[in-house]
């Protein structure tokens, strides 16, 4: 008799701060960052409260800030993205990585497995390659980063090639089918300890444009929509048919077709209302364990959902074979 899937996990504990190991918990030290990256200095000026800051509605300023943060905290000397591509806020991206490290440790009796042995698949790596950079520099993980956009793949490859600290640790791989996630990407016999994804948020280009306008209003610009607002983003980075809920549903379905290709499949879930549908899809797919981990940066609340199809004996075999540290 088939064992029923576990009940939907309880709601995550609400948080209001970044992960304790996240190095970006303190306010930005703009004098120190400008010293490390002189390009940033041109954008730093007192804000209306008299504190040093930048105009976060200015894409060039945000890009300069990211370059400074990557240099100061991660030793990345070269980082660039094509015009109009997503320039993500690094503190929140780092949080996802640190909570994944906690998930691995919890799965291994409280001990984080050796970094060089951990393989991670970043679905939608983007031209910015942020998750692999942080995961490699913070924990020594090896990454495959997938994307449906050839320009993004080449940009990520260029970042890896230009930084010795990333050499051989990141493979940017083109997903040839734009409507697929794992199908046609994960190779025969290939396994990952973790997969991660920040799925497209919106369901249409019009919805994405409206979201950009709301963001501009929130930043206090009061201006009409521009082609690229602060963090930018291409269509495939911002929206897809079915939006976040549809993308994650497809991800769950494809993961169920390869239950032993990953120990933990994970994704960010930005909209709380998306969670019930995700839990239903995971129950239907037969996930043996589902976990929801709350995340926050100030007023912005998010969460990641992780699931596995491995039964306890398979989990034990995985730890012995790959992590060298059985529970």
TrEMBL record:
Domain of life: Bacteria
Pfam families linked to this entry: Methyltransf_10 (PF05971)
InterPro entries, A to Z: METTL16/RlmF, rRNA_lsu_MeTfrase_F, SAM-dependent_MTases_sf
Reactions catalysed according to its record: adenosine(1618) in 23S rRNA + S-adenosyl-L-methionine = N(6)-methyladenosine(1618) in 23S rRNA + S-adenosyl-L-homocysteine + H(+)
Entry EC number(s): 2.1.1.181
Annotated region described as Disordered, given as residue ranges: 1-29
Molecular function (Gene Ontology), one example: 23S rRNA (adenine(1618)-N(6))-methyltransferase activity
Record keywords, A-Z: Cytoplasm, Methyltransferase, rRNA processing, S-adenosyl-L-methionine, Transferase
Low complexity biased stretches: 1-12
Compartments, as annotated in UniProt: Cytoplasm
Its job: Specifically methylates the adenine in position 1618 of 23S rRNA.
Family affiliation: Belongs to the methyltransferase superfamily. METTL16/RlmF family.
Record-given protein name: Ribosomal RNA large subunit methyltransferase F
Biological classification of the source: Bacteria, Pseudomonadati, Bacteroidota, Cytophagia, Cytophagales
């Amino acid at each position: 008799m088939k064992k029923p899937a576990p009940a939907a996990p309880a709601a995550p504990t609400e948080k209001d701060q970044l992960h304790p190991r996240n190095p970006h918990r303190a306010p930005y030290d703009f004098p120190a960052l400008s010293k490390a990256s002189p390009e940033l200095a041109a954008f730093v000026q007192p804000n209306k409260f008299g504190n040093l800051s930048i105009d976060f509605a200015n894409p060039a300023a945000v890009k300069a800030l990211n370059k400074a943060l990557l240099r100061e905290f991660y030793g990345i000397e070269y980082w660039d993205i094509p015009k109009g591509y997503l320039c993500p806020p690094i503190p929140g991206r780092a949080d996802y990585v640190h909570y994944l490290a906690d998930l691995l440790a919890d799965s291994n009796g409280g001990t984080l497995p050796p970094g060089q042995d951990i393989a991670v698949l970043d679905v939608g790596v983007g031209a910015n390659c942020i998750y692999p950079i942080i995961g490699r520099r913070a924990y020594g993980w090896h990454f495959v980063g997938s994307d449906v956009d050839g320009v993004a793949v080449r940009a990520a490859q260029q970042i890896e090639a230009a930084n010795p600290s990333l050499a051989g640790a990141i493979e940017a791989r083109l997903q040839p089918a734009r409507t697929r996630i794992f199908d046609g990407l994960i190779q025969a016999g290939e396994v990952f300890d973790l997969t991660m994804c920040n799925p497209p948020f919106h369901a249409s280009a019009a919805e994405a444009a409206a979201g950009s306008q709301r963001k501009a209003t929130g930043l206090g610009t009061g201006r009409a929509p521009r082609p690229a607002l602060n963090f930018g983003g291409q269509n495939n980075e911002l929206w897809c048919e079915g939006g976040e809920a549809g993308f994650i549903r497809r991800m769950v379905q494809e993961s169920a077709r390869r239950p032993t290709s990953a120990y933990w499949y994970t994704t960010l879930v930005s909209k709380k209302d998306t969670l019930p549908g995700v839990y239903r899809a995971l129950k239907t797919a037969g996930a043996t364990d589902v976990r929801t981990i709350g995340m926050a940066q100030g007023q912005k609340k998010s969460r990641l959902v992780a699931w596995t199809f491995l039964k306890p004996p398979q989990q034990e075999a995985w730890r012995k074979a790959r992590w060298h540290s059985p529970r």
